[in-house]
Amino acid sequence: MAKKLHYFDTIIGLAEPIRYILHYGKHKFEDVRYKYKDWPIKSVKDSLPYGQLPLYEEGDKSLNQSLAIAKYVAYYSKLVPSDPWEQAVLDAVVYSIYDFWNYVVAYLKEQDPVKKQELKKQILYEQVEYFFSRFEKELKNNNGYFGGKLSWADFVFVGVIEATNYFLGEKVESKYPYIKALVQNVQNLPGVKEYIASRKVEFV
């Protein structure tokens, strides 16, 4: 069954954790990339369910929303627990990760340079401390992974950290040893490591 992942020609964004999971799981898929500078491409945008990327296709079926796609492909790489409670715990972690990410999104959307700088300071000195201290505690208490072993939540978290670091020009995980170790572990997983080494697409 043909598999396609549609997203921009960037290596920082919502689709990168999905790409990591697909490569880790050794899934064959077509990595369809659109030039970010040319977006919106009307013919593509009009064909999307809600006019947004990423989009994942599998045969004649399609799925939008990055987290839904990540969780779905992770299921076939044994990165989603079978127990409903354990699934819910990981879902809660991912939602908390995106609570943090929403502050970064607000920073990216802000046009006023003074307000933008203030938002950056708030992220680095308030939101990072608030969220990352809690993420660090969870990782420390769970064998270095959310949920006690490698899961889709870990991939999502690493993707958000990579994007945050790029857009803010920082290393937000540097003061958190368990988070730093998780980033290194995911980036060095079989399939992921080779993909990172081979990717040639530029950052935004």
From TrEMBL:
MF-aspect GO terms: glutathione transferase activity
Keywords linked to the UniProt accession: Transferase
Residue ranges constituting the GST N-terminal domain according to the UniProt record: 2-81
Superkingdom of the source species: Eukaryota
Pfam families: GST_C_3, GST_N
Any GO BP annotation: glutathione metabolic process
InterPro entries noted in UniProt: Glutathione-S-Trfase_C-like (IPR010987), Glutathione-S-Trfase_C_sf (IPR036282), Glutathione_S-Trfase (IPR040079), Glutathione_S-Trfase_N (IPR004045), GST_C (IPR004046), GST_superfamily (IPR050213), Thioredoxin-like_sf (IPR036249)
Listed EC numbers: 2.5.1.18
Alphabetical list of PROSITE patterns matching this protein: GST_CTER, GST_NTER
Reaction(s) the record says it catalyses: RX + glutathione = an S-substituted glutathione + a halide anion + H(+)
Domain GST C-terminal, residue spans: 83-204
Record family assignment: Belongs to the GST superfamily. Sigma family.
Quaternary data: Homodimer.
Designated name of the protein: glutathione transferase
Natural source organism: Euphydryas editha (Edith's checkerspot)
